[in-house]
Fold this sequence. Notes:
Blueprint: H1 5-25, H2 27-30, E1 38-43, E2 49-54, E3 68-74, H3 79-88, E4 91-95, E5 102-105
Antiparallel strand pairs: 1-2, 1-3, 2-4, 4-5
Amino acid sequence: MQKSRGEHLQSFYDDIGRVAEMMLSGRMEDDDNEPSEFDCYRSLADFKLMIFVARDVVPPFRFKAGGWEFLHSVAELEPAMQIRVAEKGFFMFRASEDEPGWIEQTDIQLHKLDDD
C-alpha cells in the first residue's frame, strides 16, 4: 500500500526533526559511520526509478530493477535521503510525472513502458 502525500510529508518532516536534533546534540559531525558521498543509479527496466547508495556500494534489488545504470556521484543529499541511506543502506525513489520532485519507494514496483 502506497503512502498518501500527507504521510510522505509527515515522514519527511520527522526525518528533518531527527537531523536537526542530531546536529544540535553534535552527533552528526562525530558519526564516522554515515557515508559522506553517494552514488546515484537508474533502473534499466524503469528509467523513472532511481536509487542512492553510499559511494562504491552495490545497490540492492538489482534483479527486480533489471539492473542499475550508474548516473553520477554526489557529495551531499537532502537530510531525509541521507537518513534513509544510513538506516536502510539505500534511498529509492520514483521521479514524479505530474509535478517536480520524487516519491520515495520502499520496494520495487516497476512501471512498464508502453510499446507503441
